[in-house]
Amino acid sequence: MEEQQKTSFDSMPDAVDRMIKQLSEIKAILIDWEIMTPEPEENELLTIDEAAKLLHLRTPTIYSKVSRGELPGVSKRNGRLYFDKQVLIDWIKSGSKKTSSEVEAEAAAFLNSQRKGVR
Question: Is 32 among the domain residues?
Fold first, then answer.
């Protein structure tokens, strides 16, 4: 980094020129960075093999998790499973969230406890 210099009124035009040059360089760097950083594809769907690779699981494990409702972002079309890539990535990043079967089990337990308290 450059050392900061005290700027007098007489050296102000040179200081402004240096700042403009530095801003142009920063702008060029940001533009290059934006070009090199690919935007995530919206609604990218994965096949079961691609989902297994993304999750570092075997395909049979994916089938098991789908049947138990443990994976988010799953849709079935024409007998094939498709997975929303971004939903899976968000699920991985969020850590372990409750699955639909866990939520259902908790809801059933709660309702049962409420019924017992009413009697």
Answer: no
